[in-house]
Amino acid sequence: YHYMIKRIFHHLLIIIDKLNSEFYIKNISIAYSSLFALLGFVSIFIPIDTYTGNSITWKILIVLALLIIPSIIGSLYSSIYIKTHHINKKRLKNGYFIIEYGDLHQLMFPPDMPTEEYTVVIPVNNRLNTVTEPWGSSGKSNHGYWLNTIIKKNINLQTLQTKCTNKLKQQNLYHPDENYEYPIGTCILLNGFEIGLSNINILLAATGVINQENQSEGNEEQFIMGLQGIIKAQTNLLYKRPMYLPLISGGFAGRKMNKKGEELIDMIYHMFKFNEAGIASDIHLVINEDDNIQIF
């Protein structure tokens, strides 16, 4: 009896931990509704006292079971669904906002070149005059991984920086100071043919700054401005080309924002939804499965 109670509380703690997810809450609620509807129907023909008699202990156990079983069923269903379905689609006016588990690094440099064109967003700091300058990154960040792989492919970094500079000049934004900080939201679009990657465009998006400790940093205002710059680039430059982007401010730059991944996902979706009239393609938000972020 005591062991059973202990196990019930153990499962309750697991379920409580999941209740910050609307997807879990929805399925747990459905499980409760279904079970109690079934119980009400069965009790018309077979009263509960048929099983319990006058035993208070059995009645308490049944009540506890009715409290815990739907939660377990709803949680198990949600977990299984998340493991077997790697995509959560939300409708936009002319496409879908797709939240999916995946690896953005593989999308930057896939084993086989894609047959259809798409764009990968790489968040960077706003010192765009040195955006192709290696800084000894381990390659964990998307920017660091992209640069390290470019170096391995023997792509000339000075030539690449010149391309970036020309893109800034085309936008009438270029400033010669090496440490000049461009407005958050400034984007540089490198088309695939310009960097030797057929059908894979790279959008370098300034979403954060470099602080006095020489670390990437961002805040809520910069998050919104950076994301709006990405949306503007999609609307004005890319239009019908699908876009793949990481969780903006979900890594190093956003470490001081104190926002959960699920909160950032929700904000990113609603900003794209607000601007959906100018978007004519699918937008993919790629989440690393190891980050333990629920996409439902």
Written overview of the protein:
This protein has 296 residues and is α/β, with parallel strands linked by helices. It contains nine helices and eight strands. Strands 1, 2, 3, 4, 5, 6, 7 and 8 form an eight-stranded mixed beta sheet that branches. Strand 5 and strand 6 form a beta hairpin. Helix 1 (2-18) packs parallel to helix 4 (56-84) and helix 2 (22-45) crosses helix 4.
Radius of gyration: 25 Å
* H/E topology pattern: HHHHEEHEHHEEEHEHE
Helix content: 40-55%
Distance between the termini: 36 Å
Count of separate DSSP helical elements: 9
Global morphology: elongated
Strand content: 15-25%
Mean of all residue-level pLDDT scores = 85
Largest sheet: 8 strands, mixed
Extended strand count: 8
What ranges have pLDDT less than 50 throughout 5 or more consecutive residues?
A: none
TL;DR?
With about 300 residues, the protein is α/β, with parallel strands linked by helices.
Brief descriptors of the model:
296 residues; 9 helices; 16% strand; elongated; 8 strands; 8-stranded mixed sheet; single chain; alpha/beta
Topology summary:
Elements lengths: L1 H17 L3 H24 L3 H4 L3 H29 L2 E6 L2 E7 L2 H5 L9 E8 L16 H11 L4 H14 L16 E4 L9 E11 L5 E2 L2 H19 L4 E3 L15 H14 L8 E5 L9
Parallel strand pairs: 2-8, 3-5, 3-7, 7-8
Antiparallel strand pairs: 1-2, 4-5, 5-6
Helix pairs in contact: 1-4, 2-4
